[in-house]
Amino acid sequence: MDHAELTTEQVLKRDIPWETYMMTKLITGSDLQLLRRYDNKAESYRAQLLDDDGVAYIRVFVNILRDIFKEETVEYILALIDEMLTAANPKRARLFHDKSLANEDTYEPFLRLLWKGNWFIQEKSCKILALVVSGRPKTHESILANGGASNSKSKVTTIDDVLKGLVEWLCAQLKKPSHPSRAAPSAVSCLAVLLKEPVVRSSFVQADGVKLLIPLISPASTQQSIQLLYETCLCIWLLSYYEPAIEYLATSRTLPRLVDVVRSSTKEKVVRVIVLTFRNLLSKGAFGAQMVDLGLLQTVQSLKTQAWSDEDLLEALNLLEEGLKVNIKKLSSFEKYKQEVLLGHLDWSPMHKDTIFWRENINSFEENDFQILRVLITILDTSNDARALSVACYDLSQFIQYHPAGRVIVTDLKAKERVMKLMNHENAEVTKNALLCIQRLFLGAKYASFLQV
Question: Is a pLDDT exceeding 70 seen at residue 43?
Answer without folding.
Answer: yes
